[in-house]
Predict the structure.
Amino acid sequence: MGEQRKSFLEQVQSQIKSKEAKAFVSAELHHHLNEVKNYWLQKGISEEQADEKAVTQMGNPISIGRNLNRIHRPKVDWLTLALFVAALLLGFLPLLSQGYMTGNHFSMYKVIFVVLGGILAFGMMFIDYRKMANKGWIFYLLGTLLLLFLTRYFNTLVEGQAVLKIGSLKIEGLMAIPFFLMAWAGFFQSNRFKMWQFLLLFFLSSYFFLQFSLTTLLIYVAMTFTMIWWSKLNKKKIAIVLGVGFALVTAWGIIGWMTVAYYQKQRLLSFINPYNSEEYFGLSKVHHLFMDAGWFGKHSFVDQMIPQANTNFVFLSFILLRVAVCNNSFSSSFFSCC
């Protein structure tokens, strides 16, 4: 490479901030320079003169670099960012509806974890996940080790699920799903990944997830099957696997229905006929609260105790939110409903 060409490319790259764009720009400029150089070589001039003419013909390297920097400037996905911030803020609504935002340690924990989550998400924006495409086995191993560790060294049970609690931090099986998300993303983009490998790894990981909760397993299965449908594997084989999986789940459901306890059957049947529910806080009670709240709520629900208000009954908490906040002095002027 001639010194003039080298200097030209360095000046152009110095104006570009994106490291990834520098490589693409350099390759593109090399291609254009070679085209112009070949043109002048055909005119019968020397190679050195042709290279100089090609560089001169390209123009001012500083101006070119600035223009290319504007073109290749990383764009912020404002829609995704807005949805992410909205999701973080919505997490405070259940606490607000239950009156936990004033003088309660739950609010402090919520703020701390939201801030930490935001910092973590912001830091992950700078990670080039394409470089991890061939690290699927590492992520699969990390996820499996986390599940095995939790099944052996948990120190408390939350609603029957094994949880490792360290201070206010709770580590549960659901936290292993991101590792498997990265693992399957790496596996499915490889042309060498086979269906038998998928079946082996999927059933092995599903067994570990089943040790925690059925809900966690269903989330994992839905995630994996969605990813495999858009993978490079043969669609016919995928359809067969999904069909067999559905048949197995159906058979498991039928066998499970014949073996579960009476109260568990009643819980399932309550979704069909909520008014016959025998639960302490059944669907019939939830239905009455929804219907009686109307569009703007009623003050008679202010003292209503809702179990699992920030998880299972979070939507009900949102519906009754106006009632709760109307009794807080800091928000009465905003909602003007008290």
